[in-house]
Amino acid sequence: MKTNEDRAEAWRVELRNAIKAKDRTNIERVHMPELDAEYRSHNRVEEVNLGITAEQAMEEAKRCLDCANPSCMLGCPVGIDIPSFIKNIERGDFQEAAKVLKETSALPAVCGRVCPQEKQCEGVCIHLKMKKDAVAIGHLERFAADYERISGNISVPAVAPANNIKIAGVGSGPAGLAFAGDMAKLGYEVVIFEALHEIGGVLKYGIPEFRLPNDIVDVEIQNLQAMGVHFVTNCVVGKTISISDLEQDGFKGIFVASGAGLPRFMNIKGENLVGVMSSNEYLTRVNLMDAANPNSDTPVFQGKKVAVIGGGNTAMDSVRTARRLGAERAILVYRRSEEEMPARLEEVKHAKEEGIEFLTLHNPIEYIGNEQGRVTHMVLQVMELGEPDASGRRSPVEIPGKLETIEVDEVIVSVGVSPNPLIPQSVKGLEVTKWGTVVVDNDTMQSAVPIIFAGGDIVRGGATVILAMGDGRRAAKAMDEWIKKSR
Fold it and tell me: Where would I find the H helices in 240-377?
């Protein structure tokens, strides 16, 4: 009698034989439909990328060669069985494709939207070796997850019988959610403590809805709740309750994923002027506190001449948000050239289409204000590129005496973040770097305090959603093994 594995292998062989490899590689990569740039630049809620159709998804899936040693899986931090979910799309079984994604990813609809696939799974696709476009893995992942959600037939991953062991997670961002999903599958009683009133961490407060709608995040969270994960909001571990409190309450393992919510500034003259703020504050207030609404309890100033300092995805989110809030001139100021910019190419493209100005090879050295203490101008040092630094990017070097002054009424600083210091400062014996990140074993994510594992920005200092999720998965696997050995 044939097993499910036998049947799956049979149809995959059939699909491989149905179309020659050469014909598969000659199919053009699908293009993601988008909202009109002028329309979307004034719309803060509607998603820019519209998603691909079933026909487009099945055609794109044909491009996958179902490699014997799929390099795309090695490029995926959470280890998704990429060929399997794509082949399910090719044969039209979209529900099964979604199930395959959920075997290893707690957030497929999120990852299909915000992960830098071009640097990870797609970045090592075999098509690139043939000078072809990579398979649109991210588009296909989003399609499968969206299809399942829209169909209403949402599958819940199987969980092992309850083992009655309590596990705590601190922070409900991508690392915490991935950890929770894997631990729930193993039968643990998982409780995630979130400092804010909304679950989702940076997925809710840091990423605008035009890139990641909140209802998409909510569906992924509801799936975790259906698996038995519990969430406690408005609870600051390290202040409301302590790690010791959790231990006394019977939690046998604690995963710290409290993120990096402490903004960095440049320590230049005028940073204390009204109208100068961090991207963390700006995006949190707009995304989570309805600050764009003039009737909000904490309305945000909606500048007309807005400058955002930085070149990452958060800077791009900030400047595109400012444009949507009515900025007549929205400028991205970056000290390197566009080639060194760490933001996703898609985000750069979208920003330019929406009328964002790019002022590269410039760096602010002073903000100037009026008598009321509000920022009015920004002095910029003009830069040029020197030799590469430790990151491999060419270092920006000042051009002596070359300055520019531009008029601004709002400045949003997005030059990096530091880890939340509450837990590192409140746990005796926890090893912390000079940057405030928690030191862990890279393989197990276990800290110097055995009961505490950690991952995401609290360890990395700043990372992508998918890298944080990878940390959560490694921590879950290692914590399970540690608990079993400790019993």
Answer: 243-248, 279-288, 313-324, 345-353
Q: What average pLDDT is seen over the chain?
A: 93
Strands of the sheet with 362-369, listed across from one edge: 362-369, 375-388, 394-407
One-letter identity of residue 240? T
* Spatial distance between the Cα atoms of 323 and 306, rounded to a whole number of angstroms: 8
Q: Are residues 333 and 403 in the same domain?
A: yes
SS3 23: helix
Kind of pairing between the strands at 230-232 and 189-193:
parallel
Task: Tell me the C-alpha distance between 43 and 25, whole Å.
Answer: 38
Structural domain harbouring 366: 263-413
Amino acid letter, residue 82: I
Tens-place pLDDT, residues 10-29? 777 777 777 888 889 999 99
pTM: 0.92
One domain, residues 314 and 278: yes
Angle, CA of 225, 99 and 145, to the nearest 5°: 80
Q: Do 364 and 347 share a domain, yes or no?
A: yes
Q: How many domains does the chain have?
A: 3
Answer yes or no: are the C-beta atoms of 264 and 418 closer than 8 Å. Answer: yes
User: Does residue 334 share a domain with residue 198?
Assistant: no
Of 396, 413, 430, the residue at which a domain comes to its end is 413
> Does the pLDDT value for residue 314 go beyond 70?
yes
What CATH number should be reported for the domain holding residue 447? 3.50.50.60
Of 151, 181, 210, at which residue does a domain stop? 151
**Whether residue 179 is found in the same domain as residue 270:** no
Instruction: In whole angstroms, give the CA distance from residue 23 to residue 122.
Output: 20
Residue-wise pLDDT for 123-170, tens only, equals 999 999 999 999 999 999 999 999 999 999 999 999 999 999 999 999
Could you tell me the sign of the dihedral formed by the alpha carbons of 181, 416, 193, 483, in that order?
positive
Torsion angle, alpha carbons of 213, 215, 219, 224, to 10:
80
Q: Are 458 and 257 in contact (CB under 8 A)?
A: yes
- pLDDT bin (cut points 50, 70, 90) of residue 423 is confident
What are the percentages of helix, strand and coil residues in the chain, rounded to 5?
Answer: 40, 20, 40
Greatest extent of the chain over all pairs of C-alpha atoms, in Å: 84
The average pLDDT across 330-355 equals: 95
